Amino acid sequence: MKKTAFKITQFNLKLKTIALFFLIVAIAPAAKCNNAKTNPIPQSRAVAFRRAKGLDNGISISWLEQTWNPEALKENPLKNTDFQLLKKLGFKTIRLPVAFEFYQAKPGGIAPLLSRIDNVLAQCRRYRFKLIIDYHYGEINDTNYTSATQKAINTWLLISKRYGKVSGDELFFEIYNEPPHMDPAKWKDAAYNITTAIRKADPDRTLLVGASNYNSIYELSRFVRLSDENIIYTFHFYEPFFFTHQGAAWVGDQVATTGVAFPYNEKNFPQLNPKAKNTWGETNYYQYAKDGNEQSVKDKLGIVKAWGDKYVVPLVCTEFGVYNKYADLDSRCRYIKAVKTSLRALKIPGILWDYHTNFSIFTGPPSEAHLPPCMRDALAPGKPTK
């Protein structure tokens, strides 16, 4: 009886073991799916790192995101002479912000817009520029993020189909410009769904993904990387905002104080504009003595560099620059040089905002004659990132 009971017990144990095995197999895919947003899929990141390195010395072209300009599609700020000038000045990458949702809602639809993008891509390939297509002015927020995410996905599937055969070394997709100040978890969910949808349609494309709160360096430092290995993480850098956006009417009273120089100089520091009182502009006014210098710029860029090193992912700064209506030219040159120098030291590629509008590097229409000597010095490529 004991031997028989022992055999039955062994048999029951085997049955339980087999059942447990199949249970583990059954739930494994679900577990993998639940962790897909944070647990990296084990494959090479070398492609993303190599392509990120090639994005250095870039510039954004403000044009197809100008929803306030009814003539935008009739204009063309990128003629052969512009490509030749950009090439001569050492630029290698063009970032093209596009207000897809705005044009999709117009009576003519998206076809005229796509024709413009086709032309830019053709010229970039002709002159050997890398091109980033950037999804600008989406309407995502905390309450509509599910439907707004689907809208972005639908557009990216259209773009992926149209440009899917273009080499990933030449063309990049920036999935969403400046997600607003929203729940970071909801934005991460949206970013995951957009990248996953693009990846199914365009397996080898390198995607650019940033954090919420307008591509904030601070939000990115709290972000947990996505599972997709072929992503370059992007951020925008306008620190100190008190200087770079002084007098910008679209920002509001917090930047009403003008005449701010870079770096901070106590002797010529302006009085606080009364409009800025009781706003963040007042706080930033008194903070500028500490923030308005090259070391502060480098320290703040170091925040995202440390995050990139933590997750071993490539980074790119897709916007930095200075609103040029009120900031003096020498300060603008010094600031741009400080940012470029710090980015270079941290081995982070940088893309300037912008070519020819209110953050322009020129003192008139784009030309060598309108590029001030101090700006030419600020834009000097220096040693390449390794």
Automatic annotation (TrEMBL):
Q: Which InterPro entries match?
A: GH (IPR017853), Glyco_hydro_5 (IPR001547), Glycosyl_hydrolase_5 (IPR050386)
List where this protein forms a coiled coil.
Answer: none
Q: Which residues form the Glycoside hydrolase family domain?
A: 72-356
According to its UniProt entry, one GO biological process term is: cellulose catabolic process
Name the keywords, alphabetized. Carbohydrate metabolism, Cellulose degradation, Glycosidase, Hydrolase, Polysaccharide degradation, Signal
Q: Which domain of life is it from?
A: Bacteria
**Gene3D superfamilies from the entry?**
Glycosidases (3.20.20.80)
Q: Which GO terms describe its cellular component?
A: cell surface; extracellular region
Q: Name one Pfam family in it.
A: Cellulase
Do the record's keywords include Amino-acid biosynthesis?
no
- SUPFAM superfamilies associated with the record: (Trans)glycosidases
Q: Name one GO molecular function term.
A: beta-glucosidase activity
Q: What span is annotated as the signal peptide, if there is one? A: 1-30
Can you tell me which family this protein belongs to?
A: Belongs to the glycosyl hydrolase 5 (cellulase A) family.
Q: What is this protein called?
A: Glycoside hydrolase family 5 protein
Origin species, per record, is: Mucilaginibacter straminoryzae
Lineage of this protein's species? Bacteria, Pseudomonadati, Bacteroidota, Sphingobacteriia, Sphingobacteriales
